[in-house]
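Exercise 7.
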Amino acid sequence: MKVLVVSQYFWPETFRVNDIVSELTARGHEVSVLTGRPNYPEGAVQPDFLAHPEHYGSYAGAEVLRLPLRPRGKGSLQLLLNYWSFVFWGCLLGPWKLRGRHFDAIFVFETSPITSALPAILLKWIKRAPLSMWVLDLWPDTLKAVGMVKSERALRLVGALCTFIYRQCDLILGQSQAFVEPIRRWAGSTDKFRYFPAWSEEVFDNASAHVDIAPELLDHQGKFNILFAGNIGDAQDFPSILRAADLTRDHTDIHWLIVGDGRAAAQVREEIQRLGLSSTVFMLGRHPVERMPSFFAGASALLVSLKSDPIFSMTIPGKVQSYLAAGKPLLAMLDGEGARVIEASGAGHVASAGDARALANQALALANLPLERQLAMGQSGRSYCEAQFNRASLMTQLERWLASSSA
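Solution. The predicted structure, written as tokens, is:
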């Protein structure tokens, strides 16, 4: 097949769309990627790309076509301009960059914003190719949940846009079974919906092998290290995490380690200082995904959290699969699908979303478990991940769907 992948985010940014592209090319398909200049999560175009853009024109055998989108910046206005610049340049330059080419299938990687599908829809019309979209972020519900859009009128307009986009798709993939009803609400039907969960990144394939502990964690050896890895944003509810850390401050053997960056990082850093938690809560900065196994190796438990909101209860955070594959116990503060997966796996302890006291109690309970029990929980998580979120099996299913849509 000749497959066009449209994604606002792509390598060297670390998203699972990278795995989809590399897997499809490895299976002999001809893949082209229409994307933007890498600027996530820093908000500025990555310096190495600016210095050597010619180094970023191919990935795993796929051709990568870059659009000159506006960087995310730091404020809401800059983010909005970033979203719409991808639409503008994608619709203006996308058809030109892809002129004369035929595609058997067009695939959209849809984490926020859903507007990134608009250039793909235009290309669907021009190329007369079937359009598939993997929905990882439900608009407009997510915009309301994180407070990005408060106006009901604006939310209805975004909903109308979602209806248009969904109805242009020949296949809609959802990362959670709970996405069925919200997508039906806007699409009018779920006939085109298929469940397609995420998987653990390739770097965790050999998680059971010995990995040296990251040097950044050497000062924390001998402690019960609860490690959060990933985006530091509003959805992750760091105020509740820090309240839980405050409740366990007298247990100085428990360290809360935060690996990552995001729009709320500065606020979290300030709150740690305000609460006087600098001796038990540590921000270790952002590091490449390739280094995560070394950070996970030094963790006693891996932390995942989402705000208390109906839309987040429908979501399985992408880090859950990677945490499970790492073979470490999980500590969670979330509801719904994410909580269900962790409880079904037997891999960890779960507190309700927003319940800081319950999270603190679960952290203490996990820390007090015998080491043998902790290791068994980690192994249980790894086995569940292999059975439910196997990357090779999921990619085979995706390959079949794309092929059948183009038949």
